[in-house]
Structures are given as structure tokens and as C-alpha cells.
């Protein structure tokens, strides 16, 4: 399916959802210093052919303008002529869509996610034990244990991608970039938001719990 074949309503719905999520996350202070990026997929999906709307790079994400988003293809190339640049991290979105077939991907930087990624860097994953919010990932085991993968962060974004490919865990709808931020995804914007909120809750929980243990 080409970009032109995708229904206008589908594209408009994605832009409306992105606008809403962006403004909500901005109100929570989740885009400090222009950080973070959001995307929602549109149209049919094949691992080697898909399209999505993504935040333009370097914008103040607490503002709403007519130049906040653009559509790109599976290679991260803009689908229409535009002076906007897609997020610098578009290739990470491309890879997550390619691997998971997700419908939406949200990325934010926070103090808690950055600190826990460093606290657990040596084991390359953030362990979470038996916390109720694990159920937000549709994991219903009694006293579930999960490990949220952490990958290296590089200024050169294509260098991040191979480790994302390698470490992606089909049970866990997110991946942490070391001292950078969390990528969370889901079948749609509702699910990606639920996952992101659960990750952020769990990161703060793990940080505070770890601190209590170290003081004891
Ligand atoms: C300004 S610091 C954050 C950026 O380096 C990057 O990590 C980020 O999340 C936002 O980049 P962007 O190109 O606006 O999508
Ligand atoms: Zn980032």
C-alpha cells in the first residue's frame, strides 16, 4: 500500500491522537529541553512497507503548531515534500515497528528512567519483582518478574539500532536507552500510553526501593 492509498481519515486520526498525547505528556513535564518523540502508524502493515506520523525534530513539544508532525515511510524518509525534519531518532521507531508491528511508539526522557538505567547498566536490564503495575503489560503471573532491557546510547543514532534489534523482548513493550530515555510501544496509542505510564511508575518504584535497600 502506497502512502497515497492510505485513507485521509486514517492520517487525520493519527495526527489528532498525536496532538492529544503530546499535549498531555507536555503537561506532565515529560519533554524537557525539546527531548522525546512520538509516532503513530497509519495504513496497512508489512515488515518491509509501512508508514507513520512522527514528531518533527527539535521542536518545543509543549507548543502546538501546524508544523509538529510529518509522515515518513519504513526507511524514515518523508512521504511528502516538507521543510520539516523527522525526529533525529526516527530510525529507532522504524526498527521497533519492523520488529513488533506495533501501532504507536512513545519516547520520553525522565530523571528516574535515566538513573535506573545507570544503576542497572552492568546487568543490562532493570529487574522488577511482583509489582502490580506489571499487569499493564498484560503479564498476569502471580509475583511476576520482568527484566526491562537497557541498550547502549550513542550520539550516532544508526549505531543504537543493532542492539535494539538484538535485545527486544516480545514480552516487554519497551526498551531503555542508557542514561537517555524509554521507548514504549503498543498496538495503538491507548496501549502505548498505558505501557509508558507503567514503565515510568516502575522506574520510580525501583529507584526508591533500591535507595531504601542501600540505606538499610
Ligand atoms: C535535546 S535532547 C534530546 C534529543 O537528543 C533526543 O534524544 C530526543 O529525544 C528528541 O530528539 P528529536 O529529534 O526532537 O526527536
Ligand atoms: Zn531521546
TrEMBL record:
Protein's pathway: Amino-acid biosynthesis; L-methionine biosynthesis via salvage pathway; L-methionine from S-methyl-5-thio-alpha-D-ribose 1-phosphate: step 2/6
Gene Ontology biological process: L-methionine salvage from methylthioadenosine
What reaction gets catalysed by this protein? 5-(methylsulfanyl)-D-ribulose 1-phosphate = 5-methylsulfanyl-2,3-dioxopentyl phosphate + H2O
Q: Which UniProt keywords apply?
A: Amino-acid biosynthesis, Lyase, Metal-binding, Methionine biosynthesis, Zinc
The EC number(s) attached to this protein equal 4.2.1.109
* InterPro entries referenced in this protein's UniProt entry, alphabetically: Aldolase_II/adducin_N, Aldolase_II/adducin_N_sf, MethylthioRu-1-P_deHdtase_MtnB
* Pfam families to which the protein is assigned, alphabetical: Aldolase_II
Q: How is the cofactor bound?
A: Binds 1 zinc ion per subunit.
Q: Which GO terms describe its cellular component?
A: cytoplasm
User: SUPFAM superfamilies, per this entry?
Assistant: AraD/HMP-PK domain-like
Outline the extent of the Class II aldolase/adducin N-terminal domain.
16-207
- Co-factor requirement: Zn(2+)
Superkingdom field: Bacteria
Write out the residues that bind Zn(2+): 107, 109
Task: Tell whether Metal-binding is among the UniProt keywords.
Answer: yes
A GO molecular function term, named singly, is:
methylthioribulose 1-phosphate dehydratase activity
- NCBIfam families the record matches: salvage_mtnB (TIGR03328)
- Purpose of the protein: Catalyzes the dehydration of methylthioribulose-1-phosphate (MTRu-1-P) into 2,3-diketo-5-methylthiopentyl-1-phosphate (DK-MTP-1-P).
Which family is annotated?
Belongs to the aldolase class II family. MtnB subfamily.
What is the protein named?
A: Methylthioribulose-1-phosphate dehydratase
Q: Organism, per UniProt? A: Paenibacillus albus
Top-level taxonomy? Bacteria, Bacillati, Bacillota, Bacilli, Bacillales
Amino acid at each position: 500500500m502506497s502512502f497515497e492509498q492510505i485513507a485521509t481519515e486514517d492520517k487525520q486520526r493519527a495526527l489528532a491522537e498525536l496532538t492529544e498525547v503530546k499535549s498531555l505528556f507536555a503537561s506532565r513535564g515529560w519533554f524537557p529541553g525539546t527531548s522525546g518523540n512520538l509516532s503513530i502508524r497509519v495504513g496497512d502493515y508489512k515488515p518491509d512497507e509501512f508508514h507513520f506520523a512522527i514528531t518533527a525534530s527539535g521542536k518545543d513539544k509543549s507548543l502546538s503548531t501546524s508544523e509538529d508532525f510529518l509522515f515518513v515511510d519504513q526507511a524514515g524518509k518523508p512521504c511528502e515534500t516538507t521543510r520539516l525534519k523527522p525526529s533525529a531518532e526516527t530510525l529507532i521507531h522504524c526498527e521497533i515497528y519492523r520488529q513488533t508491528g506495533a501501532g504507536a511508539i512513545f519516547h520520553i526522557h525522565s530523571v528516574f528512567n535515566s538513573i535506573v538505567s545507570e544503576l542497572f547498566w552492568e546487568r543490562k536490564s532493570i529487574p522488577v519483582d511482583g509489582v502490580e503495575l506489571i499487569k499493564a503489560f498484560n503479564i498476569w503471573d502471580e509475583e511476576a518478574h520482568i527484566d526491562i532491557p537497557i541498550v547502549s546510547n550513542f550520539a550516532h543514532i544508526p549505531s543504537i539500532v543493532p542492539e535494539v534489534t538484538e535485545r527486544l523482548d516480545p514480552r516487554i513493550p519497551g526498551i531503555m536507552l542508557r542514561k537517555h530515555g524509554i521507548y514504549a510501544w503498543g498496538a495503538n496509542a491507548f496501549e502505548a500510553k498505558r505501557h509508558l505510564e507503567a514503565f515510568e511508575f516502575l522506574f520510580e518504584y525501583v529507584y526508591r526501593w533500591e535507595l531504601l535497600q542501600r540505606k538499610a
